[in-house]
């Protein structure tokens, strides 16, 4: 719906017209400008600055501007000097900034001064010595005059006629078809940006019999190492910090291990999947995948530092606050013949953020 | 052109100074004299708020200059190396080449740290300045015809600036930015149907892969800045073409522009201001550090730090994500992560609301005229109220995005803050709208009183019969003109529901909405009628009482 | 990594185990008491326990029960060990002043000698981590780089990259590590005060704890830490950086813009 149906009288009168200054507009014609207290008195008369009438003041301004440009030159020299003098690793204590790099501090200030004084000089020059007489320039309507528009329309029609664009529909339509299809080549080229998702997000390195390796010591974890209230992170046996795919694998396999008194565990399955109260949960938040590990050992709550999703590790890691949509996956663990903790399989569900195919 | 050159050329070569001859040479090939004739004495009005856009322009130039320098040293690679540079606490740690080269820029390249900090500070200031510039344009109604397209260009620049900043922030591959990239990937996964595919394609496989730094690098230094540069040039051409807006005042009309000429005053002021901006950013980079990746550490997908925030301009999105309840739908073997998706949808909607407001306003007013005189925010209470409401929502979400920092610094509970944000994201803007509108109307009333009764002089006079009055000084004609020159729209009428024959008239429902909105914008109680000449004369003729 | 497994069999480890046993039986505690002052005082172990019990009865029993068995106002202290007492009392957290989400750090009200007596008494109630010796917690010669890595794995999630602290649920918080002594950091890792999880030697051996302490000192000790780029803005990350950019960066630029655009003073006032 266009605004054609808005009556003219709903629009306010042209600015100025109501006051009779410009002389057009039906209501204003009757009023003479001097009769209207609100009429536009026109640009106020120019008032001279001190510098305009006092040559000594102007000289002072001139000297101030020249001083600023000179300071800028000195600052540039200082910049080069600092660059040469200060070693790159020299630290100095400067109140209130602390122990800072002498080079960074001196280079920044000298460069800042060198630039700032050019600007300040130019602005002071403009403000005090250049003319400050305000000038009014005419505006011209942006829309083209009707005859220009008519000419353009005629040219357009001629072009259309000469090319046969409107007449030869077969040419036009096949051209549109070709133009529409050709970008597909570019889209197809993007295919090899990465592999297809397949089941990649559903599995981790964890498997039956893989020992839980303490990420601090790289030793297998033993149940007696883990006391009630302690926190430790584990990765699957066989994964090393130097592995090419370490980042990708630990992004899914990172494990958070705590021990909770079995009486305090409210969730039955959690207790079953634990080893004497030692529970292993995915460290990867189910919201958007931050490594979550702000474990409060008295409340058994674990908080995500990114978006504050809070999970209750004593109750199946269910979400008790924040934007996460589901509980942290738990890894079923046991003890192998050597007395080390081991996984009894992979996670039962995909770890990390939800995705469409997760189900 | 050729005839002119031939006739004049001969004696010019002997007499004209070198500069003029160079200019002649260029004019023969580029036509610079015609260009200069149109633009050399172009008029720009003087007002500090008109320089906000210049801050954006100059910080953008500074970002490009410093950014080019950084590319000389930065290696956009995720190959793992062991750090052995000069920063001791990080020695022996496995890092990516991107991280190691950023450390080298910071600790081994002389001046590298300064340029890196200038680049990042300028980026933060760039987006902040765009925001303030946009608010100036919004609250003064400078987006009205013929500048709607330029408003959209500016808005696109803001959005692109945010994403250029985000991709740049991710390049050093430090723990903080890596966490941000992980969030991006998690958010992409939440997109229905294609989420996992987009994620695999963007990261070249499973997160984090070995590609994202290189890919973000080409997006950050080429694709997005290229588009921004194009938009920026278009934005500036339109500013020149439309000529600048101006505030109301004596001698200033819709048909002129009053100010100083480009040559010499604005050349010196704007040119000088560039150096001022450059200098200030340089000093800021000297005295304050940001993104100290040496203490943040390299990115590891299983490590994290508390206080994990993006740069401020993404704080609004961060807030939305943080305070959203964790809703998730599981059905027919598929998962819809509303907890991530809803904020992802609200984010463009909120940004889009401010971008589209000008078009809604012009639809309601039906005004098709050009506007070059700026509104005072008080004279458009609905627009001002909407703008303040929008800013309130934005600011509340910034609090949401920093809820953990707010919690520790004001000894509050993170959960309480989150609930406050959840509620006030909806309530706050409504309260802000109502309050702002009332303040605007109050200011309009004050202006009206000032026009009709003059300025309060602060002089107390005792009349012969003992009464005390305050003397009101009448305003000058210029002031009277300034305070009464704004336009006031008349609200639309729905029209009779029956036509002259008594037959029920069909009223278009869209038109009904428009009438409603028009009343809300300009109806009774939504603007104070400005004083008329008659009112003024009646009061001034009967002067004597205050 | 193989080295670490060797460490587990390190002679010192045996000493630690021995100390545990000794504390459990309550015998010979004072002979191994780590603090220099405690040794200087040279009170016999039983005398220390006796003195500690007196202090306990006056200052602690109202919340923790007359025999340290705990009440509704305070948890049991049986088995918390001397390290926990030393940490809680020497950092001023205990005795607590008022109930709240978390007991804050404040000025210690007991002298170190009194704290040692209290610790001896609590240690006599049941076996627990004992106060570490300087040899245990001193970061001298530790690997700062490795410490940083361990810090980011185990500590940064709550205490922030450089140990500036951060928020936990419902008003709780991880305190800043600035100005916390190496001994107290060690004790905190060992005992897990309040809601902090513990990192016993089984999961984070002594050597690794020293690495972590070395990193924390490198980041927070005024003599060792530096902020090469200038003001660290609290080490809080983008929130304080954004605020600084708005207030000082854009603020200064807008001030400059006002100066550039303002009218120059006229010769005569209108």
Automatic annotation (TrEMBL), chain A:
Ranges of biased composition (kind: Low complexity): 16-25
The keyword Cytoplasm is annotated on this UniProt entry: no
Membrane topology designation: Multi-pass membrane protein
Region (Disordered): 1-50
Coiled coil: none
Positions of the Rieske domain: 247-342
UniProt-annotated location(s): Cell membrane
Record field: transmembrane: 64-86, 106-126, 170-190
Key words, A-Z: 2Fe-2S, Cell membrane, Disulfide bond, Electron transport, Iron, Iron-sulfur, Membrane, Metal-binding, Oxidoreductase, Respiratory chain, Transmembrane, Transmembrane helix, Transport
PROSITE patterns assigned: RIESKE
Purpose: Iron-sulfur subunit of the cytochrome bc1 complex, an essential component of the respiratory electron transport chain required for ATP synthesis. The bc1 complex catalyzes the oxidation of menaquinol and the reduction of cytochrome c in the respiratory chain. The bc1 complex operates through a Q-cycle mechanism that couples electron transfer to generation of the proton gradient that drives ATP synthesis.
Family: Belongs to the Rieske iron-sulfur protein family.
The protein's name in its UniProt record: Cytochrome bc1 complex Rieske iron-sulfur subunit
Species whose genome carries this gene: Streptomyces albipurpureus
UniProtKB/TrEMBL annotation, chain B:
Pfam families: Cytochrom_B_N_2
Transmembrane segments: 50-74, 118-139, 151-171, 183-204, 216-241, 270-290, 336-360, 387-407, 419-436
Swiss-Prot/TrEMBL cofactor(s): heme
Enzyme class: translocase
InterPro entries: Cyt_b/b6_N, Cytb/b6-like_sf, Di-haem_cyt_TM
EC number of this enzyme: 7.1.1.8
Name of protein: Cytochrome bc1 complex cytochrome b subunit
Keywords: Membrane, Transmembrane, Transmembrane helix
Catalysed reaction, written as an equation: a quinol + 2 Fe(III)-[cytochrome c](out) = a quinone + 2 Fe(II)-[cytochrome c](out) + 2 H(+)(out)
Entry-linked PANTHER family: CYTOCHROME B (PTHR19271:SF16)
Domain spans labelled Cytochrome b/b6 N-terminal region profile: 22-248
Keyword ATP-binding on entry: no
UniProtKB/TrEMBL annotation, chain C:
Location, primary (coarse class): membrane
The entry's keywords: Cell membrane, Electron transport, Heme, Iron, Membrane, Metal-binding, Repeat, Respiratory chain, Signal, Translocase, Transmembrane, Transmembrane helix, Transport
Keyword Cell membrane: yes
Membrane topology term: Multi-pass membrane protein
Subcellular location: Cell membrane
Organism domain of life: Bacteria
Substrates-to-products reaction catalysed: a quinol + 2 Fe(III)-[cytochrome c](out) = a quinone + 2 Fe(II)-[cytochrome c](out) + 2 H(+)(out)
Limits of the Cytochrome c domain: 47-126, 142-220
A matching Pfam family: Cytochrome_CBB3
Quaternary context: The cytochrome bc1 complex is composed of a cytochrome b (QcrB), the Rieske iron-sulfur protein (QcrA) and a diheme cytochrome c (QcrC) subunit.
The protein, known as: Cytochrome bc1 complex cytochrome c subunit
Organism annotation: Streptomyces albipurpureus
């Amino acid at each position: 719906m266009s605004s054609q149906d808005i009556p003219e009288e709903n629009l306010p009168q042209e600015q100025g017209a109501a006051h009779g200054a410009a002389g057009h507009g039906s209501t204003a014609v009757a009023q003479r400008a001097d009769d209207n207290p609100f009429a536009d008195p026109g640009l106020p008369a120019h008032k001279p600055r001190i510098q305009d009438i006092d040559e000594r003041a102007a000289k002072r301004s001139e000297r101030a501007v020249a001083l600023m440009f000179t300071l800028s030159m000195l600052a540039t020299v200082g910049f080069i000097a600092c660059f040469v003098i200060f070693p790159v690793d020299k630290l100095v204590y400067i109140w209130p900034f602390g122990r800072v790099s002498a080079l960074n501090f001196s280079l920044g200030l000298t460069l800042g001064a060198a630039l700032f004084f050019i600007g300040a000089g130019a602005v002071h020059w403009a403000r005090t010595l250049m003319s400050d007489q305000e000038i009014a320039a005419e505006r011209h309507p942006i829309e083209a005059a009707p005859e220009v528009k008519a000419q353009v329309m005629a040219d357009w029609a001629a072009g259309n006629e000469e090319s046969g664009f409107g007449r030869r529909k077969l040419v036009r339509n096949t051209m549109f078809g070709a133009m529409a299809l050709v970008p597909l080549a570019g889209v197809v080229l993007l295919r090899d940006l990465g592999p297809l998702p397949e089941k990649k997000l559903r599995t981790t390195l964890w498997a039956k019999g893989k020992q839980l390796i303490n990420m601090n010591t790289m030793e297998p974890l033993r149940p007696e190492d883990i006391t009630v209230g302690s926190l430790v992170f584990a990765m699957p046996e066989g994964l090393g910090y130097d592995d090419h795919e370490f980042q990708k694998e630990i992004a899914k396999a990172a494990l958070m291990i705590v021990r909770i008194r079995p009486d305090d565990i409210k969730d039955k399955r959690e207790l079953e999947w634990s080893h004497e109260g030692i529970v292993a949960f995915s460290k990867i938040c189910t919201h958007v995948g931050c490594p979550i590990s702000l474990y409060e050992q008295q409340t058994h709550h674990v908080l995500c530092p990114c978006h504050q999703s809070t999970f209750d590790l004593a109750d199946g890691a269910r979400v008790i606050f924040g934007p996460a949509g589901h509980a942290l996956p738990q890894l079923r663990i046991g003890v192998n013949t050597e007395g080390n903790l081991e996984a009894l399989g992979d996670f039962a569900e995909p770890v990390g953020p939800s995705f469409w195919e997760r189900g | 052109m050729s005839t002119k050159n031939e006739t004049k050329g001969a004696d010019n070569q002997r007499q004209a100074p070198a500069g003029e001859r160079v200019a002649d040479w260029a004019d023969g090939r580029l036509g610079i004299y015609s260009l200069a004739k149109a633009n050399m004495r172009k008029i720009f009005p003087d007002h500090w708020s008109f320089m906000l856009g210049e801050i954006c322009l100059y910080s953008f130039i500074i970002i490009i200059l410093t950014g080019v320098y950084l590319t000389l040293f930065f290696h956009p690679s995720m190959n793992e190396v062991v750090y052995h540079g000069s920063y001791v606490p990080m020695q022996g740690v496995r890092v990516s080449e991107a991280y190691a080269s950023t450390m080298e820029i910071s600790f081994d390249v002389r001046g590298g740290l300064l340029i890196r900090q200038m680049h990042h500070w300028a980026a933060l200031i760039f987006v902040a300045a765009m925001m303030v510039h946009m608010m100036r344009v919004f609250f003064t109604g400078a987006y009205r015809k013929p500048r709607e397209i330029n408003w959209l260009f500016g808005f696109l620049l803001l959005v692109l600036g945010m994403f250029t900043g985000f991709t740049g922030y991710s390049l050093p591959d430090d723990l903080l930015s890596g966490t941000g990239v992980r969030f991006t990937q998690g958010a992409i996964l939440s997109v229905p149907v294609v989420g996992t595919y987009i994620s695999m394609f963007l990261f070249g496989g499973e997160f984090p892969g070995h590609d994202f730094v290189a890919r973000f690098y080409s997006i950050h230094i080429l694709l997005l800045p290229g588009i921004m540069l194009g938009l920026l040039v278009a934005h500036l051409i339109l500013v020149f073409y439309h000529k600048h807006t101006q505030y109301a005042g004596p001698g200033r009309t819709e048909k002129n522009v009053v100010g100083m000429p480009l040559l010499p005053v604005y050349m010196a002021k704007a040119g000088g201001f560039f150096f001022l901006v450059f200098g200030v950013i340089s000093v800021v980079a000297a005295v304050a550090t940001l993104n100290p990746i040496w203490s943040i550490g390299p990115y590891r997908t299983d490590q994290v730090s508390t206080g994990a925030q993006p740069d401020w301009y993404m704080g609004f999105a961060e807030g939305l994500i943080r305070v959203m309840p964790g809703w998730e739908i599981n059905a027919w073997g598929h998962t819809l992560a509303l907890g991530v998706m809803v904020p992802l949808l609200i984010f463009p909607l909120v940004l889009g609301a401010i971008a589209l407001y000008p078009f809604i306003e012009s639809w309601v007013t039906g005004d098709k005229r050009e506007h070059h005189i700026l509104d005072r925010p008080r004279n458009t209470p609905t627009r001002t109220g909407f703008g303040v409401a929008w800013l309130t929502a934005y600011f509340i979400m910034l609090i949401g995005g920093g809820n953990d920092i707010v919690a520790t610094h004001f000894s509050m509970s993170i959960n309480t803050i989150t609930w406050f944000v959840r509620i006030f994201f909806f309530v706050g803007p409504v309260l802000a709208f109502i309050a702002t509108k009332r303040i605007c109307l109050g200011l309009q009333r004050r202006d009206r009183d000032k026009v009709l009764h003059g300025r309060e002089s602060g002089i107390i006079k005792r009349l012969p019969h003992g009464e005390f009055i305050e003397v009101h000084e009448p305003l000058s004609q210029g002031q009277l003109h300034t305070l009464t020159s704004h336009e006031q729209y008349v609200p639309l009428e729905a029209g009779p529901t029956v036509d002259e024959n008594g037959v029920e008239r069909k009223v278009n429902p869209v038109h009904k909405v428009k009438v409603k909105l028009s009343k809300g914008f300009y109806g009774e109680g939504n603007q104070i009628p400005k004083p008329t000449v008659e009112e003024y004369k009646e009061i001034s003729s009967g002067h004597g009482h205050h | 990594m193989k080295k670490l497994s060797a460490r587990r069999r390190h002679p010192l480890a045996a000493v630690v185990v021995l100390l545990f046993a000794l504390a459990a039986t309550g015998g010979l505690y004072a002979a191994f008491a780590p603090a220099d002052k405690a040794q200087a005082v040279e009170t016999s172990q039983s005398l220390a326990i006796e003195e500690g019990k007196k202090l306990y009865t006056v200052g602690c029993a109202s919340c923790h029960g007359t025999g340290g068995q705990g009440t509704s106002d305070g948890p049991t202290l049986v088995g918390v060990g001397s390290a926990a007492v030393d940490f809680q009392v020497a950092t001023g957290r205990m005795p607590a002043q008022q109930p709240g989400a978390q007991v804050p750090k404040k000025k210690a009200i007991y002298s170190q000698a009194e704290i040692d007596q209290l610790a001896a008494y609590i240690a006599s109630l049941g076996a627990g981590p004992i106060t570490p010796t300087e040899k245990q917690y001193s970061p001298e010669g530790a690997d700062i780089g490795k410490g940083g890595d361990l810090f980011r794995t185990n500590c940064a999630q709550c205490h922030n990259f450089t140990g500036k602290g951060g928020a936990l649920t419902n008003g709780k918080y991880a305190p800043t590590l600035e100005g916390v002594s190496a001994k107290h950091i060690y004790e905190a890792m060992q005992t897990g005060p309040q809601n902090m999880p513990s990192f016993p030697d089984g999961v984070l051996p002594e050597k690794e704890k020293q690495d972590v302490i070395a990193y924390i000192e490198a980041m927070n000790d005024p003599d060792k830490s530096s902020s090469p780029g200038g003001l660290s803005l609290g080490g809080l990350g983008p929130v304080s950086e954004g605020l600084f950019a708005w207030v000082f960066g854009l603020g200064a630029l807008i001030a400059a813009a006002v100066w550039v655009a303002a009218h120059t003073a006229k010769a005569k006032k209108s």
